[in-house]
Amino acid sequence: MLSDHPAMPCLAVRDLGRARRFYEQTLGFRATQPPGSPGADDMGVVYATGSGGMLVYPSSYAGTNRATAVTFQVADEAFDREVGALRSSGIGFETFELPSGEWRDGVLVDGAMRAVWFEDPDGNVLNLQTVEAPAGA
């Protein structure tokens, strides 16, 4: 069954060089394939994430998805630090109408959950949200 295998988000971008600067320099991602490796410059780049990876690749369809493309789940105690790092890198947060929750300085607060949404240079919508720590952690 497909549910037994890891899944990898794929983000289309118009300019791979510009995207690499954003993901590596602004957001701090680390490429898992070195620059210049076969296909890396033409086919995209895979970035390491906490539990897998994310492919950023060139496509003429870049930025056409207006829904959230990737959600990064962050422990509650790390959320403020990550949001602060995004803000200090010049990232602005998006707000929109939702059936519940309250916006506080660009952060959605809905019960114990907090979240922000922002875009990469090609308009891909990225989300950072808190997750509860496992019981006993």
UniProtKB/TrEMBL annotation:
Transmembrane segments: none
Listed CDD domains: VOC
InterPro entries (UniProt xref): Glyas_Bleomycin-R_OHBP_Dase (IPR029068), Glyas_Fos-R_dOase_dom (IPR004360), VOC_core (IPR037523)
SUPFAM superfamilies membership: Glyoxalase/Bleomycin resistance protein/Dihydroxybiphenyl dioxygenase
Domain VOC: 2-131
Coiled coil: none
Name by which UniProt lists this protein: Glyoxalase
